[in-house]
Amino acid sequence: MTSQQLSIVSSLSELPERWRSEIQAQLSQGENVVSALEVDLDQQLHFSKGVVMITPRRVLARAPGAAQWESWPFTQDLALKHHDHAGVGHLELVNARGRLAAWRFTLGQNLAAIRLVEQFEAQRDSHASGEPVMLDEENVCPSCKAPLEPDQEECPICTKVVYTPPSTWTLFRLWRFAKPYKGQLGLGFALMLLSTGAHMIPPYLTIPLMDNVLIPYQNGKQVDPMLVVMYMSGLVGAAVLAWIFGWAKTYVLALASERIGADLRTTTYEHLLQLSLEYFGGKRTGDLMSRIGSESDRICVFLSLHLLDFLSDCLMIVMTGVILFSIDPWLAIFTLLPLPFIAWMIHIVRDRLRTGFEKIDRVWGEVTNVLADTIPGIRVVKAFAQEAREATRFRTANKHNLAVNDKLNKVWSLFSPTVSFLTELGLLVIWVFGIYQVSKGHITVGILSSFIAYSSRFYGRLDSMSRIVSVTQKSASAAKRIFDILDHVSSVPEPVNPVKLDKVEGNITLREVGFRYGNRAVNRGIDLEIKAGQMVGLVGHSGSGKSTLVNLICRFYDVAEGAIMLDGVDIRAFRVADYRRNIGLVLQEPFLFFGTIAENLAYGKPDATREEIIAAARAAHAHEFILRLPQGYDSMVGERGQGLSGGERQRISIARALLIDPKILILDEATASVDSETEKEIQRALDNLVQGRTTIAIAHRLSTLQKADRLVVLDRGVVVEDGPHEELMEQKGAYYRLYQAQARNVDIDLDDGIKE
């Protein structure tokens, strides 16, 4: 078998079985598939399956939701473009006339997409030259079959990371949040124009003051006092107007920018809450806190202060330039002589600042991640006497942050003084050329004085604008990190036309359910029927897929294959919130929020009455210990339930589930972390909880599941046994070995039997 054939087999074998017969029907005689990609999003970013393939002759595809196949033969101008943004991959097929087709996919398919593009380019070039693509078996990547150079150790495809640097244009996306306040922003801009205009009056008045008052008076001529009063009144009036307009525009724009910042934080946080657990699994808490907190605050400061200054500077520079040219064009040209050099420097430095500030943001995220890890886990840190180790981690992260800032400051420390030097040089040029013009009688001393005053303001504003470059790039970096959250598409999407969920019976059906973490299959081909009101226990060794199956039923993740049905309807057809309101979840490590006992009990039902809260606590056998607390139900609970024992936290968690009266109950190792006496107390509470509910329970202690109607034994992601406890014990199969091993406290493998 040739290398090319190996690549063909590999690409087809990665596709689900259902595609293969359809693909074979589309291929011509002697035509093979070189590379294939299953796309999983339609153009509206709803989950739907499609496929894109490369053959030696053409591109062949069926778009998600489409009934017909399409194909495009290779031509020299045919190109396949690939990029990704915020969790969504994009493929575009284009030629000289424009775009021919486009496909979307989640980034779990990104490696296959990169491989597809590589094969497209190879086959297109091969088709143009007439020479077949030949791969050397000894120089191909074992993962993606991409060709490698003789001395190349790493695959350029597998190690490729798509990175988009922050762009200043990202800031324009903030208009989405500014649009509701466009009236206030328009008023602020009008006030800014008036304020800037008022600031332009005093330098202009220096011309008559010098030519009509000071110079004649110095030469011994009589000066009209009323003329002096008029000019002085003009200066005072301009200063007062500039102050009034400046105060008003600052106040109005500050109010608007604060509201924009508040909306940005709220929208980002609300969107973050809608994302699936898959997103949070790849993120650090400190990094997300930094984005919503400090990054949004940085944008707010930029909008309320620095953007205001930038716009004011732009207006001042434009108005000053117009006035200078109206007074004396030649002197104005010499005044603006250093401007191109300053603009060139700003352009060069901006790119370095842009990438540098994003690196600083990422490094600062490392610092906050250490804090987010250590402070919540301080008990573990102290228990293992690792204070010095954590201090070293923080010191290392802080040192890295310092090094990155020092590197950026080298650029900034050279840039800022250089701009100041060029502005001083510009003023020197004005003096030299202005004195020459005065000596020739082309301009008066008053005009020169006015030019000096205007030029000082012009270059002062230009220097200020150059400093704003730093702030702008920081804000662009912050905006990019926030929009990375806002642009992320949840892997558990809401249905386009949701099915109304009124009355839930509790019948759960799993049909050929499969799920993968990345490239690792966790559950495969699971068929399971759970009747309403039935209690089913999930058993199996660690890593057998029990918790993953529960997560799929809760729809924390969506199945990769098959479907999960509730009362005969695919759970993906319901609104996520409507579906989860019918599920009560009791975890092995119950999470309690900082607040009172009553607030924690009523977390799932905030409008619950005190009588309902107490009734749920009684049913969960929690009422007695709650009354022993100093303030009873109003006693404060520390962060993550500090101050309560593990059993007490668990009973509060059970009462919390009872209060919402769910039709489906999930118990995930609810008694695994407590002693035998506490387990009995919790078990009595659970007996009240499971009555009349469809219950799915996970427990390592198999004795706690003997009351279950059925036991489902999982091994390596598949169901190996299913039935009541007594029946499974009689079969002496996987469950029997697991039960006997636990009773004798030995490890087992469900396939091989007991290993003592």
From TrEMBL:
<feature type="transmembrane region" description="Helical">
    <location>
        <begin position="299"/>
        <end position="324"/>
    </location>
</feature>
<keyword id="KW-0472">Membrane</keyword>
<feature type="transmembrane region" description="Helical">
    <location>
        <begin position="225"/>
        <end position="245"/>
    </location>
</feature>
<keyword id="KW-0067">ATP-binding</keyword>
<feature type="transmembrane region" description="Helical">
    <location>
        <begin position="330"/>
        <end position="349"/>
    </location>
</feature>
<feature type="domain" description="ABC transporter">
    <location>
        <begin position="508"/>
        <end position="741"/>
    </location>
</feature>
<feature type="transmembrane region" description="Helical">
    <location>
        <begin position="414"/>
        <end position="436"/>
    </location>
</feature>
<keyword id="KW-0813">Transport</keyword>
<dbReference type="Pfam" id="PF00664">
    <property type="entry name" value="ABC_membrane"/>
</dbReference>
<dbReference type="InterPro" id="IPR011527">
    <property type="entry name" value="ABC1_TM_dom"/>
</dbReference>
<dbReference type="GO" id="GO:0016887">
    <property type="term" value="F:ATP hydrolysis activity"/>
</dbReference>
<dbReference type="GO" id="GO:0015421">
    <property type="term" value="F:ABC-type oligopeptide transporter activity"/>
</dbReference>
<protein>
    <submittedName>
        <fullName>ATP-binding cassette domain-containing protein</fullName>
    </submittedName>
</protein>
<keyword id="KW-1133">Transmembrane helix</keyword>
<keyword id="KW-0812">Transmembrane</keyword>
<dbReference type="InterPro" id="IPR039421">
    <property type="entry name" value="Type_1_exporter"/>
</dbReference>
<dbReference type="GO" id="GO:0005524">
    <property type="term" value="F:ATP binding"/>
</dbReference>
<dbReference type="InterPro" id="IPR027417">
    <property type="entry name" value="P-loop_NTPase"/>
</dbReference>
<keyword id="KW-0547">Nucleotide-binding</keyword>
<feature type="transmembrane region" description="Helical">
    <location>
        <begin position="185"/>
        <end position="205"/>
    </location>
</feature>
<feature type="domain" description="ABC transmembrane type-1">
    <location>
        <begin position="187"/>
        <end position="474"/>
    </location>
</feature>
<dbReference type="GO" id="GO:0005886">
    <property type="term" value="C:plasma membrane"/>
</dbReference>
<dbReference type="InterPro" id="IPR017871">
    <property type="entry name" value="ABC_transporter-like_CS"/>
</dbReference>
<dbReference type="InterPro" id="IPR003439">
    <property type="entry name" value="ABC_transporter-like_ATP-bd"/>
</dbReference>
<keyword id="KW-1003">Cell membrane</keyword>
<dbReference type="InterPro" id="IPR036640">
    <property type="entry name" value="ABC1_TM_sf"/>
</dbReference>
<dbReference type="InterPro" id="IPR003593">
    <property type="entry name" value="AAA+_ATPase"/>
</dbReference>
<dbReference type="Pfam" id="PF00005">
    <property type="entry name" value="ABC_tran"/>
</dbReference>
